[in-house]
Amino acid sequence: MPKYLYTTIFALLSFSTIATAQSSLAHEIGIFAGPVTLQSDFGERHNVDTNIGNTGFGIGLAHWLNFSAANNRESFFTEHFKVRSELSFARTNLKHFGQWVDRKPNGLLAQQLRNMHATSTVVGLGSQLEFSPFMKIHDFENTIRGFSPYMSAGFMVSYYSTNVSSKLGEMTLPNVTPGKYLMPSDGHAHGFASENGIALSATAAIGVHYKITTMSDLMFETRFQMYNSDWIDGLNPNKDVYKENKSNDWQVWFNFGYIYYLEF
Fold this sequence. Notes:
The protein is α+β, with helices and mostly antiparallel strands.
């Protein structure tokens, strides 16, 4: 496992160990899952078929540090903020969609794009600061069937593995792969690569907690995640030449989850 992932795991475990020693902190654990759409160089931008077709599935485990539940001294921070750490897994199968794939007559470019495909797998580890603006955490904990909207922001370190290929054959051949993906790009021999790597990402989310019992909640969340790499999907055309491919890969999660409050 790369050293950056080791460093992040050590930092999170150290933080949890310190937090456990503080009597004013409570803990929550949860599991979440849902569809994830990867916005990448596969498919046409702002295309409905691309957004639907390049949708995969993600699942994760989460831990919350609750500053309010075991603390009788209220402050704005303790009543409105939690720290969330998580380990997540997402897998997406990718294809090209849009006008260039659907072009008539059925030329070489359309055939090349139609036969390209990739699989992207991402394992992420990170933390977010969660802010509940409308309801105090103490009030929510004592309101069965209560709703508490929230927003969050944070970072993740992700290990990604991508495999890109074509049903037409070897991708280095000009009759198999469009020229824009054969040009050297970002230190790679071509604008495509099947590889494993580490990427950082910034996250931002909005969601809602729904209290079903004194010790458990349901959650729904929409999260945006922007990577600092454009190789998550296995495609990265030379940005100096192909200006339309200027953005790094990013994704949107739609998470449904269950949260359980641990006994103290």
